[in-house]
Design a protein that fits this description.
Elements lengths: L2 H4 L2 H8 L7 H30 L4 H42 L1
Helix pairs in contact: 3-4
Length: 100
């Protein structure tokens, strides 16, 4: 999967929504840096947790670690969606109404 496909345009839009035009480039750079850090830290956490939760070697151990990592990743995605829907989206909607 290309790197761009893993980045959410919706989250990028929320990241630069409050920036004025003079700082839009800097805000965009910070959002891109946050995407890179998110990917690296997310992978590190998934590997660490899945290794700690599962024991075993061979195919059974690999399947257990993969199952743990994918379950944890699904929980992270659900938490991120809830955070965006409850905190970030209402703020952006309020800003758009006041600008018009």
């Amino acid at each position: 999967m290309p790197v761009k496909a893993s980045r959410s345009p919706l989250l990028s839009s929320f990241g630069i929504a409050g920036a004025n035009s003079a700082y839009a480039g800097a805000a965009s750079g910070l959002v891109n840096t946050a995407h890179q850090l998110r990917s690296s830290l997310g992978l590190a956490v998934l590997v660490a947790v899945s290794t700690a939760l599962t024991s075993g070697t061979g195919v059974a151990g690999a399947v257990g670690r993969t199952h743990s990592a994918l379950t944890l990743a699904s929980l992270f995605i659900a938490a991120a969606f809830i955070l965006c829907a409850s905190v970030i989206a209402p703020t952006v909607g309020r800003q758009r109404r006041t600008v018009r």
